Amino acid sequence: MSNSINAVILGEHGGPEVLELAELPAPRPEPGQVVVQIHACALNRLDIWVRKGLPNLRLDYPHVLGSDIAGVVREVGESVDAKLVGREVVLNPGLSCGRCEQCLSGWDNLCPRYHILGESCRGGYAEQIAVPATNLVDKPACLSMVEAAAFPLTFLTAWQMLVVRGRIEPGETVLIHAAGSGVGSAGLQIAKLHGARVIALASTDAKLDKARELGADACVRSSDEDWPKQVRALPGVGRRGVDLVFEHVGESTWEHSIKLCRKGGRVVTCGASSGWDARTDLRHVFFRQIQILGSTMGSKASMFRIAQLIGEGALRPIVDRVFPLAEAAQAQRYLDRREQFGKVVLEIA
């Protein structure tokens, strides 16, 4: 066994140029852990935020980014079944203690000790990683390693938003912001799987064409200034509005999301890629009894259901472009231009 691995490391916050290819000591599994030989790691906007620096985020340097990981179990630690060696897996990106009230009630994403791979602990821009065995999920056999790396964080987030928090129902109308993003393309598919009518928003006609291929019932170009009026003009929306808004853009779209939500409807948010300081007219919230629901990640249990549905062909991760590990900086620049539809993935082995 080699004593070192290749990894793209972050030694300081800054632009993509701070990412460097380097050698690190090879990980060794602690009790309850496994070492996974990483074959692919998908990028998320979280990677860019961590690279730039987040409030109250303290990292142990050198830091390794990357939350979405697919690979093969290489080594197991004490008290872990040795039969896992050689198994093809994806990793649940959320780490939790497994002992607190939240973890034991199925809400491990509310664990006080919750961490996300690549955010506050080392992630997948590397050849190997040590993780708890409880974070392993069998890779759906129908997927390549690159495809498998493209689903964990985004599908888990979208599932939590729509199924767990939003309690989506058949026949409801769902407005999906940024349908070309990883979480947006996942949300579109999950909404359709649950029998909803989906209105997809995206910035270009090319992205909207791909959204239609995924099943969007109506598409509106969000780069048009009058996009909210175009949504209102769609059959079944009008003055009533939509039942559920899938919101992850934040400041630039928030006011419109509130106004487009029907009386008694829900706005579920998992992020704020355009800015967090959004204005909320509370009159719309209390007079129209709108529910505003926060959502972050999802439970370990949900990952098994998502993987099952992907294995059955009911859902599928969308890969836009693949880069080698050494070109992680270029991959982040590409992601930051927001030109992709679906996921950008680093191929590692």
TrEMBL record:
E.C. numbers: 1.3.1.86
Protein name, as recorded: Crotonyl-CoA reductase
Keyword NADP: yes
Entry keywords, A to Z: NADP, Oxidoreductase
InterPro entries in the cross-refs: ADH-like_C (IPR013149), ADH-like_N (IPR013154), ER (IPR020843), GroES-like_sf (IPR011032), NAD(P)-bd_dom_sf (IPR036291), Zinc-ADH_QOR/CCCR (IPR051603)
Enzyme class, broadest EC rank: oxidoreductase
Listed GO MF terms: crotonyl-CoA reductase activity
Keyword Transcription regulation attributed: no
Domain annotation Enoyl reductase (ER): ranges: 14-346
PANTHER family found in the cross-reference section: QUINONE OXIDOREDUCTASE (PTHR44154)
Domain of life: Bacteria
